[in-house]
C-alpha cells in the first residue's frame, strides 16, 4: 500500500514514462555526485579538525612564552613600557587579509598574516631592556600568527560542518524520498501500460469474433439466397411448386454428401 501511495500523480503514458525515467537517471547521478562531495568534505573536515587540535595544543605553550616574555620586558624596562612602545609605533607592520578557498564547491574563508613595511620601533627600549622588548615583540608576533591560523581553521571548520549537514540532507532526501518515489512511479506506469495492452488485446479479440460472426451471417444469408434462386429456377424448369423444388434439391444434396463420405 505504501509503495502505491509513495509515487507521483501522473498520467500513465509512454511519453510520461520516458520523462520519469530521465528524471530517475538525473536523480541517480545527482545522488552519486553529492555522495562524492560529502565524502570529500568529510575528509577535509577531519584534516582541519586534526590541525585545530594540534594548533590548540601548541597555543598554550606559545601564549605562556609570550606572557613570560612580557613579564621579563616589564622587569627589564620598567612598568611604563606600554607608553614607550605606543610613542615609537605609528602604523602596524603585521596585518591580516582574507581570501577564499574552493573545496568541492564550498568556499572556505582563509585568513593570512603578512608584514607591511619595515619595523620602525627598533629604538624602543634603547635606554634599558631593549633586548627583552624585542624578544617580547617576537613572542607576541608568533602568538598573533598562531591566532590567525587558528581563526582561519575554526571558521573553515564551522563552514564545512554546515556544508556537510546540508549535503547529507540532500543525499538522504535523494536516496530515501526522491529515488523511491520515481522508481514506484515507473513501476506504476509500466503496470498501467501493460494493463492497457491487455485490454487492447482483449478488445481486438472481441472485435475479431464479432466480425467473424457477421461474416458467417452474411455467408449463410448468401447461401440461403442462392438456394432460393436455385429452387425458383428448378421449379420453373420442371413446372413444379417451389416447396417440391426445395425438397428435391435437399434430397439431391444429401445424396451427394453421402456419396462423398
TrEMBL record:
Domain of life, source organism: Eukaryota
The UniProt GO MF terms for this protein read: proton-transporting ATPase activity, rotational mechanism
Q: Per its record, how is this protein called by name?
A: V-type proton ATPase subunit D
Key words, A-Z: Ion transport, Transport
Q: What GO cellular-component annotations does this UniProt entry give? A: proton-transporting V-type ATPase complex; vacuolar membrane
One Pfam family cited in the UniProt record for this chain: ATP-synt_D
Species annotation: Solanum lycopersicum (Tomato)
Quote the InterPro entries the UniProt record gives: V_ATPase_D
Q: Which family does it belong to?
A: Belongs to the V-ATPase D subunit family.
Q: What is the lineage of its organism?
A: Eukaryota, Viridiplantae, Streptophyta, Embryophyta, Tracheophyta
